[in-house]
Predict the structure.
Amino acid sequence: MIFDTTGKPTSTSRNNVEPPTKRERDPPRRTVRTNPVRQEASIRFTEKPIFPTTTRRTTYYSTTPSPSFLEAARLPRTTRAPTMELEPSPNALSLERGAAHFRQSLLATTDIRSNTPEENTTDGIVPVTSQVLAEATYNFNLRTKTGKEAMIASLPTDVQTKLQQPFGKDDIDHSFTNSVTLMHTFLPLHFSDFLDDSDWKRLYTTCTFAREFQTLLADYGSVDFTPLRTNFFREGWQDATDFDHDRSDMLTACVLFYRGDTASVVRYVGGPLVGDHRNWDDILNSIRGIVDNVTYNNIERIFKTGCPARCNATSSTRNLWDYLEYGNHSSATNNDAILHKTLLKDEKRGHTIMLDPRLIPFIQHLHVCPVGLVDLNHPIKSPRFIYDASFKPNPWNETVNTWTTKTTEPDLEFPQSFQRLLVWLWNMRISYPDEEIYPLDDDVTAAFRSLSWHPNMVSMHGMVVLDKLWLNCRLTFGDTTSPPNFEPVAIARRELAKHFYNLPNVEELAAKYIPNLDILLPSKADILSIMRIPPDSLNPGVQSTGSRAAHTPPYVMHVDDNLYGALRKYLRRAIAASILALYHIAGFPVATQPDPFSYEKFDLTICNIRKLIGTMIDTRSMFLWLPDYKRLLIVALLAEWLEKDYFTIHEALVLQGTLMDASRFYRWGRINFFILSAVIRKAMSQKYEILRRGWAEERKKYWENKIANTALPTSQQKLLVAHCCDRDYARYMYFSNDRTRIGVRLNAEVQLFHDYMKDPANPWRINIGHMIPRDPVTVNIGDSSFYGVGFFSDELHTFCMIPTDSAIRRRCNLNSRHDEYLSQNVMEYITGVIDFAFSITFLEHLSCEEDRQRFFPNGVPPYPQTLSRKDNVTAEKWINAAASDSIQAQQLIRITGEMGKSTKVHQAANHIDGDDNDEADMLSRPDKPDYRLDPDSLSAHLDATLAKYARFQQYKVFLPSSNLMDALHWALRPKSKIGKTEITPPQLAQPYGRLVTIEEFRVSMVFLH
């Protein structure tokens, strides 16, 4: 076998080998070279005639009885072939002494367990070794072009590939190294003359991994891998139903040639491994001046250098062994057919490279992660392949997501993308009240797979699947840095789409790409049903200049989903701009890469209703809701819970995850979901405590003994022991089949959800106006104390003051552990409940029609928002999140949930500094400490308030209804009196109160009791 300096291996026949030279018959003694760095440039590779003639096998395991590497990986650590971390020898004063030191190390690390067959001890098994020229002479004139080319041609091919491949140059920001073991020296030794034939013979007969190395050379020593550069995609590859094993053989041979350096392989092969189907210069020229400088620089780095932006990491052999021993997640190991289909798609396109798994111990700087599958039983989605870059087999292991961080990567914008779309649709509806708005979306095919890892990062993204070693050359779904590195591409696409939208000939430019559209036109009745929305300071509508810029879609990117919309006459323009923008940034369609634009979503009829990122949206009613199939699945899941008496922790987590997603679209559902979660959490906590008492000491001793051998400081060992114990408990609880009884309270909570959701007539939706920032129609500023609660609204000229009775004051002064204790946070939240009841009554009830006409001559805005300002942070959070761990607060939140069921009013909260809350402070407490409940004292307090704040004299007073006060009394019961089945408040009905004059208030004052 001959490897020339271009990297092309050629084979020779043993019958035509030239007679051995004197140097080959009697090799000279080796001497120390004065310049060992330049030695590599003088190496030429020739075939030893003593290597036996073999036929390359189609299997991937050695035919010798010695176990393969993967089989050895499954052996216990005590019986596995030992590895050795090589260190510089203190006696390596010459190559001879170095060789002697190596032989001594070899004897200490060989696998003497193996029973080597007799045929393995005979002559004729010495591998192909390289001959090193005694001296190297250079006569390059670097002042001429020819001399420079000759000098470059004389360099080792791995150096040449770094010079010739423009993608992924070496830099200080991209480095991943693994500790060196004995096996990592085999390839460099093979390509040198450091060991003679007897050394190799001894090595093969005593070391398991050396025999594996021997079979690799026998299988791939004659493989010509140069077609990887010129014929990577062979004829018929698109229709292939199995992996390209010939390509895998060439890639394996290429890895062997480059001494296990996968970065050099990626640079040598180029092509799809580095994404060179894109013209980087054209892309950068097309976005220059359109995107900001930060995005431009990120795009330039991603396309020319690779991802991530920064990673300097070091691993160990033990770390790699732990991952190899773990293997893959059960979801993957039990679904070979799905794995084969997924990997076949990536392997055909060059997104990942498939190698012989026997290469694992000989590849430099390798790391592997487990893989899994999600959405296996999803009714709509296809199973999704996950590269689990976060998983750790043991707490002390390190993996990809511990070596990288989002802080060094581009910022993420997509978490706010959906709200930006809703804001744009709301403003479009303001400006175009009589036209149909068509929501649209499209996505990117294999979005993460369109970007490449830096060549030095490829070996860090390995996986062993289907008995093959795979190295991911493109971004994976599971890396922390994948979304941030795709974000600049998404931002650039957004800005390009806006740019193309305003070009007059954009439809002509994209004519051959625009799909046929099935558009549903609205009737006159449909137009009349559109919700009319008045503008406000936060939502003035889109520009009314009449130009195209007035209705330019936002093109917000939610990861790979492009969300936008358009009027009927601009639909083709909007779609054309989106397509062209994607092609300009991701590359136009080519035969060897998937079309980046996914046309599947345009097979459906385009109308005012569309599903966007799993959410139904209607641009006429401006509502969001769950798809029907999701609601049916939730009802079925709840029905299963009602039929069983016990549940596992895993089942509880599935239920909570399902309801958490659904509750985003209905405030009543959100309130009851958090209460249900609190009940489940309590049951899980009780289970956790039982578990801790049962085997806490046992697991603690186990981890103490196991971690005691680590080199960590004592303080860190203690922290790691605690972490390991908690991890054990969590894993046991998650995977355990131990069941917990479904108590009466939990059953009642589930029943409440089920009964409501099973009836399609019960609404489960939310208006866009409640999802975006808007001007509130009223700002209710409130405060509370032991003596009372109060609030006022300057917008609606109303205030409220409700004194507390003696029982409430007594309970507020009890110890916090007392069963009847009322906290100040609960009192503050009561103010929020009452001011919400006031807002609903004022804005919706007929009894307030005259007042509404006075303050809203043009009508109350649709689905109005109110703002409740509090100087208590906890109460503010309870209002916004609609959740609390406090049992009494949960009952109060239920009251707001019941009121919110049938109202269009939405309540939000923000903070007001206590020093600026004088009026509400005065309403909730007296000036004098001897404040009593007799009419004279209450009237004196009212007079003092009116005298201090004169504008209140013109206001009306809100008196809560007895129905609302009974509900508050129900919520404020002591904890011991809160029943397990009484989970809903007394029936509430409007009006929740009435507006009275100040004089009427004097004689009709109510108390919080």
Q: What stands out?
A: Residues 2-168+180-274 form one domain.
